[in-house]
Every structure is written in structure tokens, then in C-alpha cells.
Design a protein that fits this description.
Layout lengths: L1 E5 L4 H10 L4 E6 L2 H17 L6 E5 H7 L2 E4 L6 H6 L8 E4 L4 E3 L3 E3 L7 H8 L4 E4 L19 E6 L2 H12 L5 E6 L4 H17 L11
Parallel strand pairs: 1-2, 1-4, 2-3, 4-5, 5-8, 9-10
Antiparallel strand pairs: 6-7, 8-9
Length: about 220
């Protein structure tokens, strides 16, 4: 598959690129193409040192849309509208939201938009795209630990069965991840809310890489 990551220069974006590019063509996107180029070189070097195959290309966020079959939004939820404003050609695309809007006080708290979730807001902003919520609850640092397997459960929800199936296939192609059909996009608030919960558990219980398993 051709997968593009908007916000691909961030920690999660680069981690996804490291994992996905071993079996798929991955476009790392950024508002500034030079940043995407630097991220690509860094990821490529890490994979080359480990002797792993990869297919990585740098581009702009618009380039991600133009070149990819599946577009991933790996950005802070508060930047969503500003990011979408400058993009064209998302109609008909499968679009993955892994955004988890939250705020931090003395603990982390889920902070959804009025639409109900970041994924539902994205679908409202992109009515002609097929939005899928996925990859929400994987610990950020775990993506880049290439010597360790990713073996978490990944909840996937969407109002489009074809897009959901495709994304579940993508999830199952990564390490030992297991995709689970969580139903329509209306379920996305519950999926997104898991992330601040597991962060709080990790913080207060002094644990690392807390994730979700459904067995």
C-alpha cells in the first residue's frame, strides 16, 4: 500500500514510518519539505543499520495527499482545521485519525471537540473522505523500538466498511499488532478516551509502554 503521514516528522509519525515502510511505500509529510527530508534520512539510516528493508519518500503534506492511497493524520488535534485548510484532493481517500485530544492538569483528561471526537470532527471537515479511527492507543515510544515487537490490540472504527477493512489489513501487517473491528465511527470517542487513561496508569503506577490488549 502507499501510505502517507501528515505530521510525519513528529515522534509518532516517524515511528509509524519506521514500522510501515518495511512492507509499504511510505511518504513522510510536513509543511516544510526539508523537515520531511531530514526525517526520512534519519529513519532510513536507522533501518539500514538494522539491515531492514524500507521504502521511504519525503514530501509536503499536499504531496502526501497526492501520492498516497491511505492518508494518516498524525498531528495534535488542535491543529486539525489549520492543517486541512491548505489541502486539496482528499475526496474519496481513506483517511486515518489517530488523534487523541486531551488536556493535562494534575492528570491527563480526555478533551473531545463539540463533534464528539477528533475522528468525528475530521469526518465532518472531510465529508467526501472515508475516515477511520485506528492506531490510537499504541504507546508513542514503542513505535520506534524496532528491536521489540508491537503486539497490542488496535481498535478500528469507521462508517465505511471497505475503508475499515483496508485499514485493518494495514494494522495486521505491522509487527504483531491485532486489528479489531470496533464498529462505526460513533465509537471513536471511547477509543480516543483510552489513551489518557493508559497514560495516567503508566504515570501513577510507574509503568512504561502501557497498552491495550483484548483477549
Amino acid at each position: 500500500m502507499k501510505v502517507g503521514i501528515i505530521g510525519g516528522t513528529g515522534g509518532i509519525g516517524q515511528g509509524m514510518a519506521l514500522r510501515l515502510s518495511q512492507d509499504h511505500s511510505v511518504y513522510i509529510g510536513s509543511r516544510i519539505e526539508e523537515k520531511a527530508q531530514a526525517a526520512c534520512e534519519l529513519c532510513g539510516y536507522a533501518l539500514k543499520v538494522l539491515g531492514l528493508p524500507f521504502d521511504l519518500l519525503p514530501t509536503t503534506n499536499q504531496g502526501v495527499v497526492d501520492e498516497s492511497e491511505i492518508v494518516v493524520f498524525s498531528i495534535p488535534a488542535e491543529n486539525l482545521e489549520r492543517t486541512i485548510e491548505g489541502l486539496t484532493g482528499l475526496e474519496g481517500k481513506t483517511v486515518i485519525s489517530l488523534m487523541n485530544p486531551m488536556i493535562r492538569t494534575d492528570y491527563f483528561k480526555y478533551n473531545p471537540p463539540e463533534d464528539g471526537s477528533a475522528a468525528l470532527k475530521l469526518q465532518k471537515l472531510l465529508p467526501d473522505s472515508k475516515v477511520v479511527a485506528a492506531f490510537n492507543n499504541i504507546p508513542a515510544g514503542k513505535w520506534q523500538q524496532l528491536s521489540e515487537p508491537l503486539d497490542y490490540s488496535v481498535c478500528v472504527c469507521s462508517d465505511f466498511d471497505d475503508a475499515k477493512k483496508r485499514v485493518m489489513e494495514l494494522v495486521n501487517s505491522v509487527s504483531e499488532l491485532k486489528a479489531l473491528d470496533a464498529g462505526p465511527l460513533a465509537v471513536s470517542p471511547y477509543i480516543e478516551a483510552i489513551t489518557p487513561l493508559v497514560i495516567n496508569i503508566a504515570r501513577f503506577s510507574k509503568m512504561r509502554d502501557v497498552g491495550v490488549y483484548f483477549r
